[in-house]
Amino acid sequence: MTDQYAVIGNPIGHTKSPLIHGLFAEETQQDMVYTAIEGLLEPDEAFADTVRAFVAAGGKGMNVTAPFKLKAFAIADERSERAELAGAVNAMKFEDGRIVAENFDGIGLVRDIEVNLGLPMAGKRVLILGAGGAARGALLPFLSARPAEMVIANRDVTKGRALAAKVGARGPLLACGYGDLEAMGRFDLVVNATSASLTGELPPVPPRVFSPEGTAYELAYGKRLTPFLRLARNAGVRTVADGVGMLVEQAAEAFDWWRGVRPQTRAVIDRLTVALD
Ligand code: ATR
């Protein structure tokens, strides 16, 4: 039987995952189908029931998107360290009646920055805006890339501090408020991991954090020039990017994990890229 995969979320209408995994499957000649499932928000156990029904029908793996990443975390039998730290799961594999859970968002982001944008993070100064799920997912993969210094800025400073306390031993990580950034100099890479762009808002980041030779990266994708990217560009930043590469790279990680074969990503990224201007 053809192996079944799916992405589950709510809403799910705009997901690109079936297209991405369909292209990967075609390229690597895998016998699989990948569909989108709109999960029910209620009752509480609806998510787990839908996942179990998918497994019972022969499902081999699932991607998980908003608002189910925490629920997926809760129902997993086994979680990677990345997923543990993120407190969220974006990919599941069903093996011998067990749910094995992963979070590939951060690793996809690092791959996009280092491989696709050609910006090795080792020795660089990195600033992450936000301390929610998206920022948490990025922390371990970022620290593994050995930046010289990593700063998390968040409106709610206690949230950032709690995060830094949790992973601080892994590398040079510091948490602060936006106001503190005024005195911290320029960063080689500034990543907007807040959810501000989803509502067209701008995190209160001072323009002086940007370096003209540096990179500004927006995790949201397909939203063209967001207020954050516009700010970066006005500050003279040469490389501004949105999260389309991260989206495709995290999908490639999951595909490799499920199928044991690594798909090419360049053509898929090019196909999904929406011009910023
Ligand atoms: P996600 O899973 O997408 O990261 P989340 O866990 O709800 O979503 O976290 C949202 C993050 O965006 C938080 O860090 C939030 O900051 P606070 O913790 O201080 O609330 C941040 N955020 C949302 N809107 C923002 C805005 N307009 N300016 C700055 N930060 C914002």
UniProtKB/TrEMBL annotation:
A GO molecular function annotation here is: NADP binding
Q: Which InterPro entries match?
A: Aminoacid_DH-like_N_sf, NAD(P)-bd_dom_sf, SDH_C, Shikimate_DH, Shikimate_DH-bd_N, Shikimate_DH_fam, Shikm_DH/Glu-tRNA_Rdtase
UniProt lists the family membership as follows: Belongs to the shikimate dehydrogenase family.
- Give start and end of each Shikimate dehydrogenase substrate binding N-terminal domain: 7-91
Q: Where is the Quinate/shikimate 5-dehydrogenase/glutamyl-tRNA reductase domain?
A: 121-197
Stored NCBIfam families: aroE, PRK00258.1-2
Gene encoding it?
aroE
Instruction: Give the residues the record marks as binding NADP(+).
Output: 81, 130-134, 219, 243
Q: Name one GO cellular component term.
A: cytosol
Name the job this protein performs.
Answer: Involved in the biosynthesis of the chorismate, which leads to the biosynthesis of aromatic amino acids. Catalyzes the reversible NADPH linked reduction of 3-dehydroshikimate (DHSA) to yield shikimate (SA).
In short, the EC number is 1.1.1.25
Q: GO:BP terms for this protein?
A: amino acid biosynthetic process; aromatic amino acid family biosynthetic process; chorismate biosynthetic process; shikimate metabolic process
Annotated shikimate binding sites? 15-17, 65, 90, 105, 221, 250
Pathway-wise, it operates in: Metabolic intermediate biosynthesis; chorismate biosynthesis; chorismate from D-erythrose 4-phosphate and phosphoenolpyruvate: step 4/7
Q: Which domain of life is it from?
A: Bacteria
Q: Which UniProt keywords apply?
A: Amino-acid biosynthesis, Aromatic amino acid biosynthesis, NADP, Oxidoreductase
* Reactions performed catalytically: shikimate + NADP(+) = 3-dehydroshikimate + NADPH + H(+)
Instruction: Give TM segment ranges.
Output: none
List of catalytic residues:
69
Stated name of the protein? Shikimate dehydrogenase (NADP(+))
> Which residues does UniProt call coiled coil?
none
Quaternary organization: Homodimer.
SDH C-terminal domain ranges (all copies): 243-272
